[in-house]
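Homework help board

Subject: predicted structure for assignment chain

Our instructor gave us this sequence and asked us to write out the predicted structure in token form, then describe one feature. I got the tokens but I'm not sure how to describe them. Can anyone check?
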Amino acid sequence: MFSPNSDVAKSPAAPHLVVANTEIVTDLDNYDEAIVRLAKRTKALYFTQHNCRLTWGLTVCRRNTRAYVFGGDGAWSSSDIDVASASGRQAFISLLVNWSLCSVDRLGFDPSIRYAFDNDSNRPYFEIDVHEKNASTGKVASRTYFSDRCTGVAATSLTGRHARYFAASDSFDTMCNPTVMIKDTWMPMTNRGRSGETGDERSILDALHAAFNSDSEVGDKFPQMVSTGPVYLCRGDEFVEDTAATALAGLLLDSKHATTAASSSNARGPSGRQHIRTVMKWAGDTISAADNPSQVVVAIADAMTALAATHKKCNIVHGNISDRAILFQMTA
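My token output:
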């Protein structure tokens, strides 16, 4: 925890250092309100930590402490840790030691999105790894992109779908002039289609381009796909797909200690979310970046034309229309 007036808290990277939001109350009657505040602050953390996979939390009331894990599938709470007892003190110290010694992804951060700092511009930027698996060899290769801004964050709830959009380039020197848009999202695995199925984003975009490639009115209104697929984490000599089960493994289901791993009150494990990263050729900024009404009108008119055409010709309906789903390029 850092004081709001400390040098650390004032630094550009301060929000990226938060491991666990903490709420402290002295009156038991205020405990429920503390939990609500903790949830709200944790939700806000997703808007500042763009490499956040899951996040921890703590509530303290008198001598009792609880640890929480907030993930895409739900929120889990430990039982009360009574620091007045020897076992409670041991459990609480074990939690702190775990945070001190564990890997970055155990703290809740995504090791494939790294914060860095550019001294020349005096601001942070991102290094983002995109993975591709060779179907014949089974080997995973990564390619690093560079981004100086996250163009949009969708985090409508603590347990909802979290998506982030990065304007990026494959070169550090050109990241101010993005060449790709990277969409990073946690999707329910039950909604994730395989190649050729309706739910697969790659197959949808391929179908749209095949249908409208020669259409002068609609053909240029869809983003061009570069790659899409799961995000992988390095585990020893192997790469494993980043899923809800991977993120929470050892924190929830495999631990015997409720303080180093929050225990679910309903005894249910993660329902299963898949970490997907999609790279598309740069199509422009989100519509929220428009600086005059005429740009908004033109962008929405083009979007309506494209949506109507996809339904009429391909029987595809867009299921998530929002300001982040409409991209446009500002022209002089």
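Reply (TA_rk): Your tokens look well-formed. For the description, you could write something like this. The helical segments are 7-10, 31-45, 86-101, 201-212, 244-248, 293-314. That's the kind of observation they're looking for.
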